[in-house]
Amino acid sequence: MTLDFSNQAHYFLALLPEIVLSLWLMAVLLADVFQKGNRSDASSPSIAWLALMGLIVTGIANAWLITLGTPAAPGLVAVDRFRIFSNFIFLIAAGLSILLSMGYLDRRGINKGEFYVLLLASTLGMMLMAASLDLILLFLALELMSIAIYVLVGFDRRDPRSSEGALKYFLLGAFSSAFLLYGIALVFGSTGSTNVAEIAPLLRTGLETNRMFLVGAALLLVGLAFKVAAVPFHVWTPDAYDGAPTPVTALMATGVKAAAFASFIRIFAVSFAGVYQEWSGVLWWLAVLTMFGANLIAVTQGSVKRMLAYSSIAHAGYLLVALLAANSYGAAAFLFYLLVYTLMTAGAFGVVIASAKDGKERIALQDYSGFGWQQPVLGAAFAIFLLSLAGFPLTGGFIGKLFILRAILDAQQPVLAVLLVLASAISYFYYLRVVIVMYMRPAPAEDSYAGLEQSAPTRFAIIATAVAVIALFFLPGWFLNAAQLSVASLFAAPDTFLGLRP
């Protein structure tokens, strides 16, 4: 059917996945209340499973959106395959975080139903960000996501690192939100609209020379660059990732980043395509600084968790390169790589969780000496994730980077392609260093890794993501085609895409 947004009832159809998740979120909250605060008995896992079931039902509702036609007129909410593809990435990231949290929260003594309520609330914010066709709705969605994440980062109140990371994230996040909101105000003042579909045609009438509009666009770029942790707006990332409960770190490194990038595409690739020459230069330097800065700092890290944090920042640079390719293949490669990145990053943090013993995570690099031999399944999975993050063949990460390189070469930007390869080469050092420690250094004792505190859901999540990362190397076609269809549905006309490039 074709939606007519003049009929308010059609907004309920367009927002069905978000409505389902909102109702399920309240159901999880009520179920936790009925437990009367006793979460130490056998009924406590039911909250986690109930939250996971909510994500599955939301995924079904999200798939149903495919049956809806293109809206007759643009409204506040997008109904396109790009939103559907992005929503599945958010739901996968949230689902993996829930699986990784099972057992982890008990060991840390923070198994509370509020954790899952906040996790679902942040996922709802991500989905609304991907669906937003209006800058005001985008801001509200971003704040919904951010406030829930702020609390989740500081959820382990007994850990001073968690409180420190949450405070830093909150303070810097407030500044970035101010930049974003002020940018929206300037864009509205210069265009008279906050709807991205209405702004795009205005840029063809000479508005691209309006200084107020350009300043507003710059402030929007700063606000979104903070959320994707692009250098130099990344300073909150290492402390927040290191201090947060590890399942929350996995969600921040995947879902939060994916939501910010989805907004990046809607605003800059579609709405601000007419000023591509103005923002592409700034984004070029952001991409280069992010790739090299993060990889060079990651080389110096002795903590595996902080190393993965800087790795996440570096991958934001790779995704910015895909955005700069300025062609439809680049946008499809962007979505495909975002999917692969979500799987391999969540899986890597899952291994960090599963390797914990006596209530303590193995954070230092030397803690993984001999890990590959004493825990062959976890060791092999960790090696797969690290090699995929580096971009080695036989992994989905290799295919993702290959697609990005092809897109940037088609865009006649060989310098950026060479820089991406060089930045990836730097990353080989710290990824392979972990693999070498796992397999080429002896464990301190024969039983160093005996009795690891890993739950069955966590182990399942790790194995499933490892298999998926390998499968995406051998069978990337269907997912790339889905990404290309998503990109095609994003634009009303072919000439609205990134500087009018094919």
Topology:
Elements lengths: L8 H6 L1 H19 L10 H20 L16 H21 L2 H5 L4 H19 L3 H19 L6 H32 L4 H7 L8 H17 L9 H7 L2 H26 L4 H24 L4 H21 L3 H27 L16 H4 L1 H15 L5 H15 L3 H27 L15 H19 L2 H14 L12
Helix pairs in contact: 2-3, 2-6, 3-4, 3-6, 4-6, 4-12, 4-15, 4-20, 4-21, 6-7, 6-12, 7-8, 7-12, 8-10, 8-11, 9-12, 10-12, 11-12, 11-14, 12-14, 12-15, 13-14, 13-19, 14-15, 14-18, 14-19, 15-17, 15-18, 15-20, 15-21, 17-19, 17-20, 18-20
Summarize the structure.
By secondary structure, this protein is mostly helical.
Low-confidence stretches: 39-43, 492-502
Count of domains: 1
Number of helices: 21
Derived from helix and strand composition plus strand pairing, the structural class reads mainly alpha
Helix content: over 70%
Taking all Cα atoms into account, the compactness measure Rg is 22 Å
**DSSP, total strands:** 0
Q: Specify the overall morphology.
A: globular
Q: H/E series, N to C?
A: HHHHHHHHHHHHHHHHHHHHH
The proportion of strand residues reads under 5%
Could you please describe the fold and organization of this structure?
With 502 residues, the protein is mainly α. The protein has one domain (9-496). It has 21 helices and no strands. It has helices spanning 9-14, 16-34, 45-64, 81-101, 104-108, 113-131, 135-153, 160-191, 196-202, 211-227, 237-243, 246-271, 276-299, 304-324, 328-354, 371-374, 376-390, 396-410, 414-440, 456-474, 477-490.
